[in-house]
Design a protein that fits this description.
100 residues; mainly alpha; 5 helices
Length: 100
C-alpha cells in the first residue's frame, strides 16, 4: 500500500497525515476512539485483512457514496460491498458475470 500505515490510518479515521508524524504522535497521541478501534481490529487473526476492508469501505464511503449523512453513506458502501462480494462469488465459481 502506498504510504504505509499512516495512509491507511488517515484514510479510515479521517486524520490528517501530518498529525501522524512520529514527533506529533509523541506530543499528542491518537484520540481515544481511534485507539479503541485499532485495538478492536487488531484483536483478531485476520487483522491485516480487516484493515484492508476498512480502507476500502472508508474510501467508498468518502468518495463514491452520494448521501449526506455518514451512516447513510456507510450503508451505501456496505450495499456496494455485498454487490462486489456476489460478483467475486460468481467469478470464483467460474460462472460468467453476464449471461450470454
Amino acid at each position: 500500500m502506498a504510504g504505509g500505515w499512516s495512509f491507511a490510518v488517515s484514510e479510515v479515521f479521517g486524520i490528517n497525515r501530518r498529525n501522524l508524524q512520529p514527533e506529533r504522535l509523541a506530543r499528542g497521541g491518537l484520540p481515544p476512539g481511534v485507539l479503541q478501534a485499532l485495538a478492536h481490529m487488531s484483536d483478531s487473526e485476520d487483522a491485516e485483512g480487516v484493515g484492508w476492508l476498512m480502507v476500502a469501505l472508508a474510501r467508498y464511503t468518502d468518495r463514491y457514496a452520494e448521501r449526506s449523512d455518514f451512516i447513510d453513506r456507510l450503508d451505501e458502501a456496505l450495499a456496494a460491498a455485498r454487490n462486489a462480494a456476489e460478483g467475486l462469488r460468481l467469478a470464483r465459481r467460474g460462472k460468467p458475470l453476464r449471461p450470454e
